[in-house]
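Job type: complex structure
Entries:
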Amino acid sequence: MSLIDSKLKTVDDGIDDLFTHLRGRDSGGIYDELVPLYMAMYSADSRIHTQMSMVAKCARPTTAKVCELGCGHGALLSHLQAEFPTVIGVDTSREMCRYASDTGAVIRSTAQAIAPSSIDLTAAMGTTIGHILPDQRLTETLDAIVTHLHPGGKFICTLHDTRSLPESHAPPYERSQTTTTERYQIRQHDHRKPATNGEFEWHVKFDVTRRSDGDTVTIKNTTSLRSFRPTQFRHWLSEAGFEQIQTYPRRVSGSTNGPARAFVASAEKPA
Ligand SMILES: C[S@@+](CC[C@H](N)C(=O)[O-])C[C@H]1O[C@@H](n2cnc3c(N)ncnc32)[C@H](O)[C@@H]1O
C-alpha cells in the first residue's frame, strides 16, 4: 500500500468527526478543520504525478535539497523524497503539517524559516502562492525564496490564471466533482466569484453522504485567493531578483479544451 493510500485510510476517521460535529454549524477552514475532505478530493495519483513531472522537469541533475512550500497533507512530498536526497515540507497549517509529518521532515512555518542559501529547488504547487495575501506578504515570501535558494537555485510554482476567471458581471465559474472513500461519498461543488485586482472568492460546498445509510451533511467554506496574469507574475519574480523566468499553461490530464485555469512559472536565482 502506498503512503498516500495509507493516509487515505485515516481520512474516514477524520470525516466521521466532521460528520458528527459540523451538522448545522459553520465549518472551519479548508486547510484546518476540513483537511480530511481536502485530502479525499485532492490526492488523485494523476494530479500528484502531474505536479511531480513539472518539478522533475525544472530540477537540475545536481538538485539535492528541495523545499516544498505549501506542502499540504504531503501527497507530493513522498514522491519528492523518492527522487531527491533531502526534502523539507513547509506549510502554515497545523492540520496539514500533522497529516504530512508521517511523510518526512515538515515544519509549520513560511519560506522565511529556511536557512539562507540552503536549497537547490523550491516548489510551490497546487496554487499555494495564490493564498499569500496581501501584496506585502507576497513580496516578503518571494524575497525569502530568493534568500533561501543557493545561487543558481530554481523556483517553480503554479498560479491561478486571471484570464480564466469570469468577468465580474458574468455568472460565476462553477464545477462539481465527486469522490468515494470507504465509508463516504463526497460531492464537491465550487464556484469562484472574482473581486478586484485578480482576487477572487473560492466558495466550496461539500455534500458528504454516509454510504451505510445515505445520511448527508452539507459543509460550506469560503477562501480568499489571488490569481495572476503571466506577464504580471513575471514582473513579481523579476522584482524579487529572479532570472531565466518562464511561464506556460498548466494542462492537467483529462482537461478539456478551454483556457487553462492555471499556469506554471519557473525562475532561477542568479548564480
Ligand atoms: C491549495 S493548498 C495546496 C496543498 C498542496 N501543495 C496540494 O497541491 O495539494 C495550499 C497550501 O498552502 C498553505 N499555505 C498558505 N499560505 C502559506 C504560506 N505563506 N507558507 C506556506 N504554506 C502556506 C496552506 O495551508 C495549504 O496547505
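Summary: The chain has two domains: 3-42+165-226, 45-163+230-268. The first strand starts at residue 65 and ends at 69.
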